[in-house]
């Protein structure tokens, strides 16, 4: 409106030099001149100061004009009916992900909105599926160990633990006491690292950036300990059937105890910064509530289950490794909202420090691996003295026959119950290897939690679930792929029939001509001449196709010179 007023004033040459409009126009021209001057003379500070003053004056005059125009416009519209713009009442479908930074991986959500209210939410998977279960069924356990850290790449020790625990229980293999203590220490350090990298992005999702940078301090210290013990920071390949790959290096225990003392101060810092923050509480308290019956019916586990009032921890229930020798408590809450899930994970980090300190102080001596199992249930090579083994060095890693049994093994991972269903078939390869990832099971409840919530609450609820797409992802579109195949079947069937018919005729013609001429040269390539018939038939079909394409091209050129 102000711009139109300027045009009318200048075009009609009725501008009064004392009017507000003319002053604004003059200031605009002056600002344009000063800007052009400062592009060439950047260190002219007097011109910069004058430019700032002129911008402030023009802004004040524009505010005055806007207020004046609103007053005049309101007087002109007095007594007239108000025109209310029409609003759309249909629902809106929004696609979130798979490249959204708050999806924590390649997760796609198809969200149906009524304004800001969520009506429906459909998670779409399948962008990161890598066939880890089928890979396991074609590898030995030792060969498969480097793969498993890609399931949950933030809690890699747990994926290694479940991979070796399954054949250990299947073959009744005993783990030395020192190896069990080392495993517990590594598992709890991995739990702390996983919870830390959950806390930072979760706080960033709800608008707090500072904790995202803080958590990397302690996480890097954990990875330093991993690197000193295993040689790798993330993908460790440290667990072995019957123990661990290597003993703890000299001085590692003292460094780990120092980390435990330092980390407790870091957790108290997080609690002071986050727990009683009013903005944080407004975003998470009462959001994404899960009741006790809902948690059980949906098969939830881990902090998702314990935040709803159920004290269920597999470290207490199954008593695997040596967790029953330590004094620690199960962390749980009863509200079932996003705040409760945050408090459970914060408490679990403190309890993990308690377990690590007790394990470090009471770690026994002895071997770190049960070396006797390398001699039992191994596939023996009857040709140990042949040429390949002695001179070409085809010496495979130790392999173990999996007895003809089936069992389900589980551990308490940071995100919940991580399980493996294993079926052996008296072979070095598992006959069936089925993974039960906790994130995949916990994600099922997301559509129910976000219904009737606001759009901004999706990030809070999804972040509180704590998912990693490496273990969550599955093939989602198998039905769609099968549907496309059945659509193409009626089209491909006649084409395939014609092709087979042409190949059969060509093959018969070659057979007859070869019998008449008594020749077995190029006409009789392959078993029974099948390869030659295939080549001739392909050549014949390609000739016909190119001939028709040439005719179409000639006609199109002649019609359109």
The H-and-E topology, N to C, reads as: HHHEEEHHHHHEEHHHHHHHEEEHHHHHH
Number of strands: 8
* Alpha carbon gyration radius: 36 Å
Q: Distance between the terminal alpha carbons, to the nearest Å? A: 56 Å
Q: How many helices does DSSP assign?
A: 21
Could you say which structural class the secondary elements and strand pairing correspond to?
Answer: mainly alpha
* Biggest beta-sheet profile: 3 strands, antiparallel
**Integer average pLDDT:** 79
Helix content: 55-70%
What characteristic shape results from the CA principal axes? extended
Structure description:
This protein is mainly alpha-helical and 561 residues long. A three-stranded antiparallel beta sheet has the order 1-2-3. A three-stranded antiparallel beta sheet has the order 6-7-8. α8 packs antiparallel against α9. The longest helix has 40 residues. It is extended. It starts with a helix and ends with a helix.
Topology summary:
Layout: H1 2-11, H2 20-40, H3 45-76, E1 92-96, E2 108-114, E3 117-124, H4 132-136, H5 141-148, H6 156-170, H7 177-205, H8 210-230, E4 239-240, E5 243-244, H9 252-275, H10 278-284, H11 292-297, H12 303-306, H13 314-317, H14 338-362, H15 387-392, E6 406-413, E7 416-423, E8 432-436, H16 438-442, H17 446-450, H18 457-465, H19 469-472, H20 478-517, H21 530-559
Antiparallel strand pairs: 1-2, 2-3, 4-5, 6-7, 7-8
């Amino acid at each position: 409106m102000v711009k139109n007023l300027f045009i009318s004033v200048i075009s009609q040459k009725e501008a009064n030099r004392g009017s507000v409009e003319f002053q604004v126009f003059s200031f605009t021209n002056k600002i344009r001149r000063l800007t052009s001057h400062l592009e060439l003379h950047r260190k002219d500070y007097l011109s910069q100061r004058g430019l700032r003053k002129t911008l402030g004056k023009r802004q004040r005059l524009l505010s005055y004009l806007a207020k004046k125009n609103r007053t005049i416009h309101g007087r002109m519209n007095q007594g007239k009916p108000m025109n209310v713009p029409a609003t759309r009442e249909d629902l809106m479908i929004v696609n979130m992900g798979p490249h959204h930074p708050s999806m924590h991986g390649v997760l796609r959500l198809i969200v149906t909105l009524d304004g800001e209210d969520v009506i429906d939410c459909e998670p779409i998977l399948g962008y990161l599926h890598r066939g880890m279960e089928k890979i396991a069924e074609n590898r030995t356990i030792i060969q498969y160990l480097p793969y498993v850290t890609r399931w949950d790449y933030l809690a890699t020790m747990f994926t290694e633990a479940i991979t070796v625990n399954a054949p250990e229980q299947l073959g009744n293999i005993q783990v030395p006491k020192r190896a069990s203590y080392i495993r517990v220490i590594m598992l709890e350090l991995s739990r702390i690292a996983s919870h830390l990298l959950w806390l930072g992005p979760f706080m960033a999702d709800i608008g707090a950036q500072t904790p995202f940078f803080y958590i990397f301090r302690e996480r890097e210290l954990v990875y330093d300990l991993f690197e000193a013990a295993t040689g790798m920071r993330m993908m460790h390949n440290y667990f072995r059937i019957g123990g661990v790959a290597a003993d703890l290096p000299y001085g590692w225990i003292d460094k780990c105890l120092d980390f435990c003392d330092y980390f407790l101060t870091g957790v108290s810092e997080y609690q002071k910064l986050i727990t009683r923050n009013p903005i944080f509480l407004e975003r998470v308290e009462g959001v994404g509530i899960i009741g006790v019956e809902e948690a059980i019916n949906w098969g939830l586990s881990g902090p998702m289950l314990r935040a709803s009032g159920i004290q269920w921890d597999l470290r207490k229930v199954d008593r695997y490794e040596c967790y029953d020798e330590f004094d620690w408590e199960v962390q749980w809450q009863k509200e079932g909202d996003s705040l409760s899930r945050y408090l459970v994970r914060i408490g679990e980090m403190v309890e993990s420090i308690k377990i690590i300190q007790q394990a470090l102080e009471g770690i026994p001596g002895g071997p770190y691996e049960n070396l006797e199992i390398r001699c039992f249930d191994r596939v023996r090579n009857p040709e140990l003295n042949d040429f390949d083994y002695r001179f070409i060095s085809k010496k495979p890693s130790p392999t173990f026959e999996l007895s003809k049994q089936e069992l389900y093994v589980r551990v308490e991972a940071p995100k919940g119950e991580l399980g493996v269903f294993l079926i052996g078939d008296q072979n070095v390869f598992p006959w069936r290897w089925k993974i039960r990832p906790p994130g995949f099971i916990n994600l099922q409840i997301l559509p129910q939690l976000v219904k009737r919530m606001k759009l901004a609450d999706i990030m809070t609820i999804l972040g509180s679930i704590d998912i990693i797409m490496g273990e969550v992802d599955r093939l989602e579109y198998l039905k769609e792929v099968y549907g496309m195949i059945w659509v193409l079947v009626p089209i491909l069937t006649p084409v395939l029939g014609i092709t087979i018919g042409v190949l059969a005729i060509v093959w018969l013609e070659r057979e007859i001509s070869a019998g008449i001429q008594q020749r077995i040269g190029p006409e009789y390539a392959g078993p029974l001449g099948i390869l030659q018939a295939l080549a001739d038939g392909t050549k014949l079909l390609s000739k016909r196709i190119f001939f028709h394409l040439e005719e179409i091209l000639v006609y199109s050129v002649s019609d359109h010179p």
